[in-house]
């Protein structure tokens, strides 16, 4: 399914604002499913493409928001969405191939020799009336040959029929939308209206219900006539040339996709938990932000101006979900101008992540080697584009002393050039070493009657207690082990 949804992206590419790693790290496939209220496959593909191609300045966002406001005031939104649903068939995923290639992948002879075969047949028919004794045998042989030729190549015909079914649906939709909206004007349907009759001839067999005996017989005879005179092949050849000459299809496809995407955004905004974001240079501030795919997600607020963020806290306390929510909402701000928060103020950062890091056995890379390679990518990005780096538990693939040293050096480097870093760590040493360079926050928990209770709320400052041991005490591990661990911890702290 992903391969079908991403077809428009495959044709047009992305503007390097989102990598596949970031897309996966932030679970954007699940986010996409949640925000997708499009009525057509065209809109679905355009919305997916939009997430990979973020808007780069306020002018683009303002223009986009103005379109949303205008379309919101349409009184016929339901009718337009209903018409768009004509392009919601499973085969409609392939419409993008029709539009952006405008070329059927058929054998060479189909275009070169098929017309000559029809001319040969017509010549023999004329010859039969002039010299019937000479042409009678070829007139019997040729139609039989052509009919067999038609049957053998029926697969190509079906492929072409789907091609033109999709195109016919597209022409029908944009013709309606063009006449019933004041914002988008389409052009390709005007140039193709003259060919509607030929498309209908090509698709005429699809009208008849093959399960009905009478219709089945009618369909058979129509197909027989088409086969004898290679009518399908001639029509397909002719229409192919007309499509190739029409330069407006791609533009109209994108207009229709944007329209459907905006209708989807209007539907999404009926959710009271979303807001329209605002731009402010070197700022990333949010009130009551949530992660859209986390059920009953606890909201959090944070105010960052000119400083990055370092977050400490126990596992399962909400650190990773929070930094992911920041990344997800920044991407939504720059793609659909809508965020899951009460307020979201942002700068045009590219989002770059290091979250779900795994060793690569196929390439013989250890966990630490993968981390190092990824950090190299982040460093290169920090030098070229203003970025938001989201890092979950930096350098957890190596020993404590070297991890702290490397983390300290890299985090300071990444936060240069007006970049922002949101990083989680279990190394409390970093909170002391970076207190002047980073805003410090933490997530905490309480142990009550032997149970762990997380409130999932972000708090100012670094965490001040040894949370790992407190969590272990509730896990059933023998008390002697825990006491020894506490003893070793005190001894190591004295040594430091």
What is the compact description of this entry?
57% of the residues lie in helices and 12% in strands. By secondary structure, it is α/β, with parallel strands linked by helices.
Question: How does this structure look, described?
Answer:
With 496 residues, the protein is an alpha/beta fold. It has two domains: 2-268; 278-465, Rossmann fold, CATH 3.40.50.300. Helix content is 57%, strand content 12%. The chain has helices spanning 2-5, 7-12, 20-25, 28-35, 41-52, 58-72, 77-84, 95-101, 108-112, 114-130, 132-152, 154-179, 188-192, 196-207, 213-229, 231-245, 249-268, 319-335, 367-382, 400-414, 429-433, 467-473, 479-495, and strands spanning 278-279, 283-289, 300-305, 308-313, 343-346, 350-354, 387-392, 420-424, 438-448, 451-460. A six-stranded mixed β-sheet has the order 6-7-8-4-9-10, sandwiched between helices.
Comma- or semicolon-separated keywords:
10 strands; alpha/beta; 2 domains; 496 residues
Summarize the helices and strands and which ones pair or pack:
Blueprint lengths: L1 H4 L1 H6 L7 H6 L2 H8 L5 H12 L5 H15 L4 H8 L10 H7 L6 H5 L1 H17 L1 H21 L1 H26 L8 H5 L3 H12 L5 H17 L1 H15 L3 H20 L9 E2 L3 E7 L10 E6 L2 E6 L5 H17 L7 E4 L3 E5 L12 H16 L4 E6 L7 H15 L5 E5 L4 H5 L4 E11 L2 E10 L6 H7 L5 H17 L1
Parallel strand pairs: 1-5, 4-8, 4-9, 6-7, 7-8
Antiparallel strand pairs: 2-3, 2-5, 9-10
């Amino acid at each position: 399914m992903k391969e079908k949804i991403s077809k428009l992206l495959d044709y047009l590419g992305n503007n390097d604002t989102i990598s596949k790693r970031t897309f996966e790290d932030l679970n954007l496939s699940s986010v996409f499913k949640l925000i997708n209220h499009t009525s057509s496959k065209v809109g679905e593909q355009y919305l997916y493409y939009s997430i990979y191609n973020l808007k780069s300045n306020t002018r683009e966002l303002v223009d986009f928001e103005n379109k949303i406001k205008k379309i919101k005031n349409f009184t016929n939104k339901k009718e337009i969405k209903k018409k768009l649903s004509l392009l919601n068939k499973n085969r409609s995923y392939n419409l993008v191939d029709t539009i952006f290639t405008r070329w059927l992948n058929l054998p060479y002879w189909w275009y070169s020799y098929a017309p000559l075969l029809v001319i040969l047949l017509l010549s023999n028919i004329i010859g039969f009336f002039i010299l019937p004794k000479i042409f009678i045998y070829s007139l019997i042989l040729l139609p039989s040959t052509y009919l067999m030729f038609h049957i053998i190549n029926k697969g190509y015909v079906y492929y072409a029929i789907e091609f033109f079914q999709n195109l016919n649906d597209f022409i029908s939709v944009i013709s309606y939308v063009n006449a019933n909206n004041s914002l988008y004007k389409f052009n390709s349907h005007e140039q193709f209206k003259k060919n509607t009759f030929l498309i209908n001839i090509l698709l005429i067999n699809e009208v008849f219900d093959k399960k009905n005996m009478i219709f089945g017989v009618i369909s058979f005879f129509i197909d027989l006539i088409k086969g004898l005179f290679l009518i399908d092949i001639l029509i397909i050849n002719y229409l192919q040339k007309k499509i190739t000459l029409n330069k407006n299809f791609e533009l109209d496809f994108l207009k229709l996709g944007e329209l459907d995407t905006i209708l989807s955004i209007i539907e999404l905004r009926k959710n009271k938990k979303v807001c329209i974001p605002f731009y402010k240079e070197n700022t990333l501030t949010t009130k009551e932000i949530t992660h859209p795919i986390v059920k009953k997600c606890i909201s959090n607020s944070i105010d960052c101006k000119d400083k990055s963020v370092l977050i400490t806290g126990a596992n399962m306390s909400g650190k990773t979900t929070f930094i992911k929510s920041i990344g997800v909402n920044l991407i939504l701000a720059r793609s659909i101008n809508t965020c899951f928060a009460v307020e979201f103020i942002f700068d045009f950062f590219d989002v770059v992540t290091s979250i779900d890091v795994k060793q690569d056995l196929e390439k013989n890379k250890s966990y630490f080697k993968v981390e190092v390679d990824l950090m190299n990518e982040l460093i290169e990005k920090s030098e070229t584009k203003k970025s938001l780096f989201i890092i979950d538990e930096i350098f957890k693939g190596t020993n404590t002393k070297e991890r702290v040293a490397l983390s300290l050096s890299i985090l300071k480097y990444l936060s240069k050039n007006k970049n922002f870093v949101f990083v989680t760590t279990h190394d409390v040493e970093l909170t002391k070493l970076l207190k002047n360079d980073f805003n410090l926050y933490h997530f905490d928990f309480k142990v009550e009657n032997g149970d762990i209770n997380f409130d999932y709320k972000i708090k100012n400052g670094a965490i001040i207690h040894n949370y790992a041991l407190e969590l272990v005490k509730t896990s059933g591990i023998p008390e002697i082990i825990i006491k020894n661990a506490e003893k070793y911890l005190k001894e190591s702290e004295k040594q430091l």
